[in-house]
Design brief:
Layout (H helix, E strand, L loop, with lengths): L2 H5 L4 H10 L1 H14 L5 E13 L3 E11 L7 E10 L9 H13 L10 E4 L4 E5 L9 H4 L2 H12 L14 E7 L3 E6 L10 E5 L4 H19 L3 E3 L2 E5 L4 E5 L4 E2 H6 L5 H16 L14 H11 L1 H6 L1 H20 L6 E3 L8 E4 L2 E4 L6 E3 L2 H17 L5 H12 L4 H22 L7 H25 L26
Helix pairs in contact: 2-3, 9-14, 10-12, 10-15, 12-15, 12-16, 13-14, 13-15, 15-16
Length: about 500
Protein backbone atom coordinates (compact mmCIF):
# COMPACT_ATOMS: atom_id res chain seq x y z
CA UNK A 1 0.00 0.00 0.00
CA UNK A 2 1.41 3.42 -0.96
CA UNK A 3 0.76 6.86 0.51
CA UNK A 4 -0.46 7.99 -2.91
CA UNK A 5 -3.07 5.21 -2.94
CA UNK A 6 -4.29 6.42 0.44
CA UNK A 7 -4.40 10.12 -0.48
CA UNK A 8 -6.38 9.48 -3.66
CA UNK A 9 -8.79 7.13 -1.91
CA UNK A 10 -7.75 4.02 -3.80
CA UNK A 11 -6.80 2.26 -0.56
CA UNK A 12 -10.20 2.98 0.98
CA UNK A 13 -10.95 3.45 4.66
CA UNK A 14 -8.48 0.73 5.64
CA UNK A 15 -5.70 2.70 3.96
CA UNK A 16 -6.55 5.93 5.77
CA UNK A 17 -6.69 4.17 9.13
CA UNK A 18 -3.40 2.40 8.37
CA UNK A 19 -1.65 5.69 7.59
CA UNK A 20 -3.04 7.41 10.68
CA UNK A 21 -2.79 4.77 13.33
CA UNK A 22 -1.08 1.52 12.34
CA UNK A 23 1.84 0.15 14.34
CA UNK A 24 4.09 0.78 11.32
CA UNK A 25 3.16 4.44 11.09
CA UNK A 26 3.32 4.99 14.82
CA UNK A 27 6.87 3.65 14.79
CA UNK A 28 7.77 5.96 11.89
CA UNK A 29 6.26 8.95 13.71
CA UNK A 30 7.89 8.17 17.06
CA UNK A 31 11.28 7.70 15.41
CA UNK A 32 10.93 11.03 13.63
CA UNK A 33 9.91 12.85 16.81
CA UNK A 34 12.80 11.25 18.68
CA UNK A 35 15.19 12.54 16.01
CA UNK A 36 13.84 16.07 16.56
CA UNK A 37 14.44 15.96 20.33
CA UNK A 38 17.56 16.77 22.32
CA UNK A 39 19.65 13.70 23.25
CA UNK A 40 18.42 13.67 26.85
CA UNK A 41 14.73 13.68 25.95
CA UNK A 42 12.54 10.67 25.14
CA UNK A 43 9.27 10.35 23.27
CA UNK A 44 6.58 8.12 24.73
CA UNK A 45 3.15 7.35 23.32
CA UNK A 46 1.61 9.41 20.53
CA UNK A 47 -2.13 9.70 21.05
CA UNK A 48 -4.20 10.37 17.94
CA UNK A 49 -6.87 12.97 18.72
CA UNK A 50 -8.26 14.18 15.42
CA UNK A 51 -7.95 13.64 11.66
CA UNK A 52 -9.01 15.40 8.49
CA UNK A 53 -9.00 13.90 5.01
CA UNK A 54 -9.28 15.84 1.77
CA UNK A 55 -9.25 13.19 -0.98
CA UNK A 56 -6.67 13.81 -3.68
CA UNK A 57 -4.93 16.48 -1.60
CA UNK A 58 -3.93 15.70 1.97
CA UNK A 59 -4.52 13.76 5.14
CA UNK A 60 -3.85 15.38 8.51
CA UNK A 61 -3.46 13.75 11.89
CA UNK A 62 -3.30 15.67 15.16
CA UNK A 63 -1.51 13.86 17.98
CA UNK A 64 -0.56 14.45 21.59
CA UNK A 65 3.01 13.22 22.02
CA UNK A 66 4.19 12.38 25.53
CA UNK A 67 7.68 13.82 25.99
CA UNK A 68 10.09 13.15 28.84
CA UNK A 69 12.61 16.03 28.99
CA UNK A 70 15.18 14.08 31.03
CA UNK A 71 15.35 10.54 32.30
CA UNK A 72 13.49 10.19 35.55
CA UNK A 73 11.21 13.15 34.88
CA UNK A 74 7.49 12.77 34.30
CA UNK A 75 6.07 13.06 30.80
CA UNK A 76 4.53 16.26 29.48
CA UNK A 77 2.23 16.54 26.47
CA UNK A 78 3.18 18.28 23.24
CA UNK A 79 0.72 18.73 20.34
CA UNK A 80 1.98 17.41 17.01
CA UNK A 81 0.46 17.97 13.55
CA UNK A 82 1.30 15.48 10.79
CA UNK A 83 0.43 16.10 7.14
CA UNK A 84 0.62 13.66 4.27
CA UNK A 85 0.19 15.65 1.06
CA UNK A 86 -0.07 14.74 -2.61
CA UNK A 87 1.82 17.97 -3.44
CA UNK A 88 4.53 17.96 -0.79
CA UNK A 89 6.13 21.14 -2.14
CA UNK A 90 2.95 23.24 -2.02
CA UNK A 91 3.92 24.99 1.22
CA UNK A 92 7.56 25.62 0.47
CA UNK A 93 6.76 29.32 0.23
CA UNK A 94 6.47 29.17 4.02
CA UNK A 95 9.94 27.67 4.50
CA UNK A 96 11.53 31.02 5.39
CA UNK A 97 8.86 31.51 8.02
CA UNK A 98 9.64 28.10 9.50
CA UNK A 99 13.33 28.95 9.86
CA UNK A 100 12.61 32.32 11.47
CA UNK A 101 10.02 30.93 13.87
CA UNK A 102 12.27 28.07 14.99
CA UNK A 103 15.04 30.56 15.73
CA UNK A 104 12.63 32.71 17.76
CA UNK A 105 11.31 29.63 19.59
CA UNK A 106 14.84 28.71 20.66
CA UNK A 107 15.56 32.27 21.70
CA UNK A 108 12.42 32.43 23.81
CA UNK A 109 13.08 28.92 25.19
CA UNK A 110 9.72 27.51 24.05
CA UNK A 111 11.18 24.86 21.75
CA UNK A 112 12.83 22.85 24.55
CA UNK A 113 13.28 19.89 24.63
CA UNK A 114 12.97 19.91 20.82
CA UNK A 115 15.96 20.84 18.69
CA UNK A 116 13.72 21.15 15.62
CA UNK A 117 10.01 21.94 15.42
CA UNK A 118 9.55 20.87 11.80
CA UNK A 119 10.75 17.92 9.76
CA UNK A 120 10.01 16.26 6.43
CA UNK A 121 9.99 12.53 5.83
CA UNK A 122 10.17 12.35 2.00
CA UNK A 123 9.75 8.58 1.70
CA UNK A 124 6.38 8.90 3.45
CA UNK A 125 5.41 12.25 1.83
CA UNK A 126 5.02 13.45 5.41
CA UNK A 127 5.65 16.68 7.28
CA UNK A 128 5.75 16.85 11.08
CA UNK A 129 5.14 20.14 12.92
CA UNK A 130 5.41 20.68 16.67
CA UNK A 131 3.69 23.35 18.76
CA UNK A 132 4.30 26.32 18.82
CA UNK A 133 5.33 26.34 15.15
CA UNK A 134 2.98 27.68 12.48
CA UNK A 135 4.33 29.86 9.67
CA UNK A 136 0.80 31.13 8.97
CA UNK A 137 0.64 32.56 12.52
CA UNK A 138 3.99 34.20 13.13
CA UNK A 139 2.79 35.57 16.48
CA UNK A 140 2.20 32.08 17.92
CA UNK A 141 5.76 31.65 19.24
CA UNK A 142 5.81 34.83 21.32
CA UNK A 143 2.31 34.19 22.64
CA UNK A 144 3.55 30.78 23.76
CA UNK A 145 6.32 32.44 25.79
CA UNK A 146 5.39 33.24 29.38
CA UNK A 147 7.75 36.22 29.54
CA UNK A 148 5.89 37.89 26.66
CA UNK A 149 2.45 36.94 27.95
CA UNK A 150 3.24 38.05 31.50
CA UNK A 151 4.04 41.56 30.29
CA UNK A 152 0.90 41.68 28.14
CA UNK A 153 -1.38 40.51 30.95
CA UNK A 154 0.07 42.99 33.41
CA UNK A 155 -0.70 45.74 30.91
CA UNK A 156 -4.26 44.42 30.46
CA UNK A 157 -4.89 44.20 34.20
CA UNK A 158 -2.88 47.37 34.88
CA UNK A 159 -1.60 45.63 37.98
CA UNK A 160 2.06 45.00 38.82
CA UNK A 161 1.29 42.63 41.70
CA UNK A 162 2.27 39.11 40.69
CA UNK A 163 -0.73 37.50 42.37
CA UNK A 164 -3.21 39.35 40.14
CA UNK A 165 -2.29 37.50 36.96
CA UNK A 166 -1.75 33.80 36.23
CA UNK A 167 1.78 32.73 36.93
CA UNK A 168 4.06 29.73 37.18
CA UNK A 169 6.36 27.65 35.02
CA UNK A 170 3.48 25.70 33.49
CA UNK A 171 1.41 28.81 32.77
CA UNK A 172 1.08 28.36 28.98
CA UNK A 173 -0.98 25.48 27.59
CA UNK A 174 -2.10 24.93 23.99
CA UNK A 175 -5.83 24.17 23.87
CA UNK A 176 -6.16 23.98 20.10
CA UNK A 177 -3.22 23.54 17.73
CA UNK A 178 -4.35 23.57 14.10
CA UNK A 179 -1.49 24.91 11.94
CA UNK A 180 -2.74 27.19 9.20
CA UNK A 181 -6.22 27.48 10.71
CA UNK A 182 -6.63 28.47 14.37
CA UNK A 183 -5.00 28.50 17.78
CA UNK A 184 -6.26 28.80 21.35
CA UNK A 185 -3.90 29.13 24.31
CA UNK A 186 -4.55 28.95 28.05
CA UNK A 187 -2.62 30.95 30.61
CA UNK A 188 -2.66 29.98 34.26
CA UNK A 189 -1.60 27.09 36.44
CA UNK A 190 -4.04 24.25 36.78
CA UNK A 191 -3.63 24.39 40.59
CA UNK A 192 -4.21 28.16 40.87
CA UNK A 193 -6.82 28.94 43.51
CA UNK A 194 -7.14 32.71 43.55
CA UNK A 195 -6.59 33.62 39.91
CA UNK A 196 -8.66 32.24 37.06
CA UNK A 197 -7.14 31.35 33.71
CA UNK A 198 -6.96 33.64 30.70
CA UNK A 199 -7.43 32.40 27.13
CA UNK A 200 -5.95 33.82 23.94
CA UNK A 201 -7.41 33.25 20.47
CA UNK A 202 -5.18 34.08 17.51
CA UNK A 203 -6.63 35.43 14.26
CA UNK A 204 -5.29 36.42 10.84
CA UNK A 205 -5.78 39.90 9.37
CA UNK A 206 -8.70 41.95 10.62
CA UNK A 207 -10.69 38.97 11.89
CA UNK A 208 -9.59 39.50 15.47
CA UNK A 209 -10.74 43.13 15.58
CA UNK A 210 -14.16 42.29 14.13
CA UNK A 211 -14.71 39.42 16.56
CA UNK A 212 -13.54 41.46 19.55
CA UNK A 213 -16.03 44.25 18.81
CA UNK A 214 -18.81 41.79 17.98
CA UNK A 215 -18.42 39.79 21.20
CA UNK A 216 -18.20 42.99 23.26
CA UNK A 217 -21.38 44.48 21.80
CA UNK A 218 -23.34 41.24 22.05
CA UNK A 219 -22.28 40.87 25.68
CA UNK A 220 -23.31 44.44 26.48
CA UNK A 221 -26.70 44.06 24.77
CA UNK A 222 -27.49 40.80 26.57
CA UNK A 223 -26.50 42.24 29.93
CA UNK A 224 -29.15 44.94 29.41
CA UNK A 225 -31.88 42.92 27.66
CA UNK A 226 -31.06 39.23 28.00
CA UNK A 227 -33.17 38.46 31.10
CA UNK A 228 -30.52 36.36 32.80
CA UNK A 229 -28.55 35.43 29.68
CA UNK A 230 -24.91 36.51 29.51
CA UNK A 231 -22.21 36.40 26.86
CA UNK A 232 -18.51 36.15 27.55
CA UNK A 233 -16.86 39.48 26.77
CA UNK A 234 -13.21 39.83 25.76
CA UNK A 235 -10.69 41.28 28.18
CA UNK A 236 -8.69 42.99 25.46
CA UNK A 237 -7.63 42.97 21.85
CA UNK A 238 -3.96 43.18 20.82
CA UNK A 239 -4.13 44.60 17.29
CA UNK A 240 -0.49 44.15 16.31
CA UNK A 241 -0.82 40.38 16.81
CA UNK A 242 -4.50 39.79 16.04
CA UNK A 243 -5.03 38.29 19.53
CA UNK A 244 -8.25 38.43 21.55
CA UNK A 245 -7.96 37.72 25.28
CA UNK A 246 -10.76 36.24 27.38
CA UNK A 247 -11.12 35.63 31.10
CA UNK A 248 -11.85 32.00 31.91
CA UNK A 249 -15.38 31.13 33.06
CA UNK A 250 -16.38 29.47 36.29
CA UNK A 251 -18.77 26.60 35.82
CA UNK A 252 -19.02 23.97 33.07
CA UNK A 253 -20.11 23.72 29.47
CA UNK A 254 -23.53 22.20 28.88
CA UNK A 255 -21.76 19.42 26.95
CA UNK A 256 -20.18 18.30 30.24
CA UNK A 257 -23.61 17.92 31.80
CA UNK A 258 -24.77 15.84 28.82
CA UNK A 259 -22.11 13.27 29.68
CA UNK A 260 -23.67 12.74 33.13
CA UNK A 261 -27.31 13.84 32.89
CA UNK A 262 -29.01 14.74 36.17
CA UNK A 263 -32.35 16.07 37.33
CA UNK A 264 -31.43 19.60 36.22
CA UNK A 265 -30.77 18.64 32.60
CA UNK A 266 -34.21 19.57 31.29
CA UNK A 267 -34.00 22.98 32.96
CA UNK A 268 -30.54 23.62 31.52
CA UNK A 269 -31.71 22.73 28.02
CA UNK A 270 -34.79 24.91 28.36
CA UNK A 271 -32.62 27.82 29.48
CA UNK A 272 -30.33 27.18 26.49
CA UNK A 273 -33.35 27.56 24.21
CA UNK A 274 -34.33 30.80 25.94
CA UNK A 275 -30.75 32.07 25.62
CA UNK A 276 -30.78 31.43 21.88
CA UNK A 277 -34.10 33.22 21.54
CA UNK A 278 -32.59 36.23 23.32
CA UNK A 279 -29.60 36.17 20.98
CA UNK A 280 -31.90 36.16 17.94
CA UNK A 281 -33.63 39.29 19.29
CA UNK A 282 -30.41 41.32 19.09
CA UNK A 283 -30.53 43.92 16.30
CA UNK A 284 -28.07 42.69 13.63
CA UNK A 285 -26.38 46.08 13.35
CA UNK A 286 -25.07 45.56 16.89
CA UNK A 287 -22.69 42.87 15.58
CA UNK A 288 -21.73 44.26 12.16
CA UNK A 289 -19.97 43.44 9.91
CA UNK A 290 -21.76 40.15 9.28
CA UNK A 291 -21.77 37.91 6.24
CA UNK A 292 -25.03 36.69 4.74
CA UNK A 293 -25.37 32.91 4.96
CA UNK A 294 -28.39 31.35 3.28
CA UNK A 295 -29.61 27.77 3.01
CA UNK A 296 -27.80 27.15 -0.28
CA UNK A 297 -24.51 28.28 1.28
CA UNK A 298 -25.01 25.87 4.17
CA UNK A 299 -25.74 23.01 1.77
CA UNK A 300 -22.47 23.81 -0.05
CA UNK A 301 -20.60 23.66 3.27
CA UNK A 302 -22.14 20.28 4.02
CA UNK A 303 -21.12 18.99 0.59
CA UNK A 304 -17.49 20.07 1.12
CA UNK A 305 -17.33 18.70 4.65
CA UNK A 306 -18.55 15.27 3.50
CA UNK A 307 -16.29 14.90 0.45
CA UNK A 308 -14.27 12.13 2.09
CA UNK A 309 -17.41 10.08 2.75
CA UNK A 310 -18.10 9.95 -0.99
CA UNK A 311 -14.67 8.38 -1.51
CA UNK A 312 -14.45 6.05 1.49
CA UNK A 313 -18.11 5.03 1.74
CA UNK A 314 -19.61 5.45 -1.77
CA UNK A 315 -23.11 4.25 -0.87
CA UNK A 316 -23.40 6.81 1.94
CA UNK A 317 -21.80 9.42 -0.31
CA UNK A 318 -24.50 8.86 -2.92
CA UNK A 319 -27.13 9.07 -0.18
CA UNK A 320 -25.68 12.42 0.94
CA UNK A 321 -25.90 13.80 -2.59
CA UNK A 322 -29.55 12.79 -2.73
CA UNK A 323 -30.19 14.24 0.74
CA UNK A 324 -28.76 17.63 -0.20
CA UNK A 325 -30.70 17.73 -3.45
CA UNK A 326 -33.94 16.88 -1.64
CA UNK A 327 -33.16 19.41 1.08
CA UNK A 328 -32.87 22.22 -1.46
CA UNK A 329 -36.18 21.17 -2.99
CA UNK A 330 -37.88 21.00 0.42
CA UNK A 331 -36.54 24.41 1.38
CA UNK A 332 -38.24 25.94 -1.65
CA UNK A 333 -41.61 24.87 -0.24
CA UNK A 334 -41.12 26.72 3.04
CA UNK A 335 -42.07 30.37 3.55
CA UNK A 336 -39.04 32.65 3.53
CA UNK A 337 -38.10 34.22 6.85
CA UNK A 338 -36.12 37.40 7.32
CA UNK A 339 -32.48 36.92 8.27
CA UNK A 340 -31.40 37.68 11.83
CA UNK A 341 -28.22 37.72 13.85
CA UNK A 342 -27.34 34.05 14.33
CA UNK A 343 -24.60 32.44 16.38
CA UNK A 344 -23.60 30.21 13.48
CA UNK A 345 -22.14 27.45 15.68
CA UNK A 346 -24.67 27.05 18.45
CA UNK A 347 -24.02 23.80 20.32
CA UNK A 348 -23.74 22.57 23.89
CA UNK A 349 -19.98 23.30 24.05
CA UNK A 350 -20.74 27.00 23.54
CA UNK A 351 -23.34 27.23 26.33
CA UNK A 352 -21.91 27.45 29.85
CA UNK A 353 -23.71 26.94 33.14
CA UNK A 354 -22.18 29.38 35.63
CA UNK A 355 -23.06 30.82 39.03
CA UNK A 356 -24.19 33.99 37.29
CA UNK A 357 -26.51 32.11 34.96
CA UNK A 358 -26.26 30.79 31.43
CA UNK A 359 -23.35 32.27 29.44
CA UNK A 360 -22.84 32.04 25.68
CA UNK A 361 -19.35 31.90 24.19
CA UNK A 362 -17.56 31.89 20.83
CA UNK A 363 -19.10 34.38 18.40
CA UNK A 364 -16.54 33.73 15.66
CA UNK A 365 -19.13 32.24 13.25
CA UNK A 366 -21.89 34.83 13.67
CA UNK A 367 -23.71 35.66 10.45
CA UNK A 368 -26.95 36.97 9.00
CA UNK A 369 -29.07 33.88 8.46
CA UNK A 370 -32.38 32.19 9.10
CA UNK A 371 -32.70 31.74 12.90
CA UNK A 372 -33.63 28.12 12.14
CA UNK A 373 -29.94 27.50 11.39
CA UNK A 374 -29.01 27.79 15.08
CA UNK A 375 -32.02 25.79 16.24
CA UNK A 376 -31.33 22.99 13.77
CA UNK A 377 -27.63 22.86 14.60
CA UNK A 378 -28.33 22.46 18.32
CA UNK A 379 -30.94 19.75 17.66
CA UNK A 380 -28.50 17.92 15.38
CA UNK A 381 -25.74 17.94 17.99
CA UNK A 382 -28.15 16.53 20.55
CA UNK A 383 -29.14 13.80 18.10
CA UNK A 384 -25.53 12.91 17.32
CA UNK A 385 -24.65 12.73 21.01
CA UNK A 386 -27.53 10.42 21.88
CA UNK A 387 -26.94 8.21 18.84
CA UNK A 388 -23.18 7.74 19.15
CA UNK A 389 -23.33 7.19 22.90
CA UNK A 390 -26.48 5.06 22.66
CA UNK A 391 -28.02 7.31 25.29
CA UNK A 392 -31.79 7.45 25.79
CA UNK A 393 -33.74 10.65 26.18
CA UNK A 394 -33.24 12.39 22.83
CA UNK A 395 -36.94 13.20 22.47
CA UNK A 396 -37.14 14.76 25.93
CA UNK A 397 -33.89 16.69 25.47
CA UNK A 398 -35.03 18.24 22.19
CA UNK A 399 -38.46 19.03 23.65
CA UNK A 400 -36.89 20.90 26.57
CA UNK A 401 -34.67 22.99 24.32
CA UNK A 402 -37.51 23.88 21.93
CA UNK A 403 -39.86 24.69 24.80
CA UNK A 404 -37.29 27.20 26.07
CA UNK A 405 -36.95 28.79 22.64
CA UNK A 406 -40.75 29.10 22.47
CA UNK A 407 -41.23 30.60 19.01
CA UNK A 408 -44.79 31.09 17.83
CA UNK A 409 -43.74 30.98 14.16
CA UNK A 410 -44.80 27.58 12.83
CA UNK A 411 -42.66 27.87 9.70
CA UNK A 412 -39.55 28.32 11.86
CA UNK A 413 -40.01 24.81 13.29
CA UNK A 414 -40.24 23.38 9.77
CA UNK A 415 -37.03 25.11 8.71
CA UNK A 416 -35.34 24.11 11.97
CA UNK A 417 -36.06 20.43 11.34
CA UNK A 418 -34.72 20.76 7.80
CA UNK A 419 -31.56 22.42 9.08
CA UNK A 420 -31.29 19.69 11.71
CA UNK A 421 -31.21 17.07 8.95
CA UNK A 422 -28.42 18.65 6.89
CA UNK A 423 -26.47 19.68 10.00
CA UNK A 424 -26.49 16.06 11.12
CA UNK A 425 -24.73 15.19 7.86
CA UNK A 426 -22.11 17.90 8.44
CA UNK A 427 -21.31 17.01 12.03
CA UNK A 428 -21.25 13.31 11.17
CA UNK A 429 -18.56 14.12 8.62
CA UNK A 430 -16.59 16.25 11.06
CA UNK A 431 -17.10 14.60 14.43
CA UNK A 432 -17.13 10.87 13.76
CA UNK A 433 -13.39 10.35 13.61
CA UNK A 434 -11.88 8.41 10.70
CA UNK A 435 -9.65 6.37 12.98
CA UNK A 436 -12.65 5.13 15.01
CA UNK A 437 -13.09 1.40 14.26
CA UNK A 438 -16.84 2.04 14.10
CA UNK A 439 -16.56 4.99 11.68
CA UNK A 440 -18.38 3.25 8.82
CA UNK A 441 -21.09 1.86 11.11
CA UNK A 442 -21.79 5.21 12.78
CA UNK A 443 -21.71 7.09 9.49
CA UNK A 444 -24.10 4.73 7.71
CA UNK A 445 -26.48 4.74 10.67
CA UNK A 446 -26.59 8.53 10.91
CA UNK A 447 -27.05 9.04 7.17
CA UNK A 448 -29.95 6.59 7.20
CA UNK A 449 -31.38 8.60 10.10
CA UNK A 450 -31.23 11.74 7.98
CA UNK A 451 -33.01 9.99 5.11
CA UNK A 452 -35.84 9.08 7.48
CA UNK A 453 -36.07 12.65 8.74
CA UNK A 454 -36.35 13.98 5.20
CA UNK A 455 -39.03 11.43 4.35
CA UNK A 456 -41.13 12.78 7.21
CA UNK A 457 -40.47 16.39 6.27
CA UNK A 458 -41.30 15.70 2.63
CA UNK A 459 -44.60 14.05 3.53
CA UNK A 460 -45.52 16.78 6.00
CA UNK A 461 -44.86 19.66 3.61
CA UNK A 462 -46.84 17.99 0.83
CA UNK A 463 -49.83 17.55 3.14
CA UNK A 464 -49.26 20.87 4.92
CA UNK A 465 -49.43 18.79 8.08
CA UNK A 466 -49.09 21.46 10.74
CA UNK A 467 -50.91 19.36 13.34
CA UNK A 468 -49.00 18.49 16.54
CA UNK A 469 -51.14 15.43 17.18
CA UNK A 470 -49.94 13.66 14.02
CA UNK A 471 -46.23 12.90 13.93
CA UNK A 472 -44.63 11.52 10.77
CA UNK A 473 -44.69 7.80 9.89
CA UNK A 474 -41.19 7.21 11.24
CA UNK A 475 -41.96 8.92 14.53
CA UNK A 476 -40.28 12.26 13.75
CA UNK A 477 -41.83 15.59 14.65
CA UNK A 478 -44.60 17.18 12.63
CA UNK A 479 -43.48 20.51 11.26
CA UNK A 480 -45.35 22.82 13.58
CA UNK A 481 -44.30 21.16 16.79
CA UNK A 482 -41.99 23.00 19.15
CA UNK A 483 -41.63 19.64 20.85
CA UNK A 484 -40.22 16.78 18.73
CA UNK A 485 -41.93 13.42 18.90
CA UNK A 486 -39.04 11.71 17.15
CA UNK A 487 -37.91 8.31 18.33
CA UNK A 488 -34.37 8.18 19.65
CA UNK A 489 -33.75 4.87 17.86
Amino acid sequence: MSVEDVLFGRAGLAGVQWLLDSSVQRRVLRNQIQAMLSPQARVGRCLLRRARFRPGRKLKGFYDALIQSNRGETYCTRPIAVTWASDAGADRRLEAGVIDMQAEARRRNVATPFRELSADVPQWVMRVMVWPLDPAFGQLVRWSSWEHVDAMLRAVYRAPAADQVPHGESAVSPIRYRPGRRHVLRYGRADAERVGPVFAKLYPGEDGANIYHRATRIGEWLSRHGIGVNAVRPLAYVPEDGVVLYQGLSGMALSEYLQSPNGNMAAYLERAGAALSALHDIPPEIAEPLQIHDFAAEVSQVARASAHIRVLLPSSGQAIDEILSRALELHQRLPAEASALTHGDFKSEHVWVTLEGLTLIDFDSCCLADPALDIGKFLAHLRLWHTVHNQPGLEAAQESFLAGYASTRRERWAAARLYEAIELVKITARRVQLFDPEWATYTERLIRRVQGMLNDLDLATKRQAYRPEKPGPNGHAALSQPCGKGASH
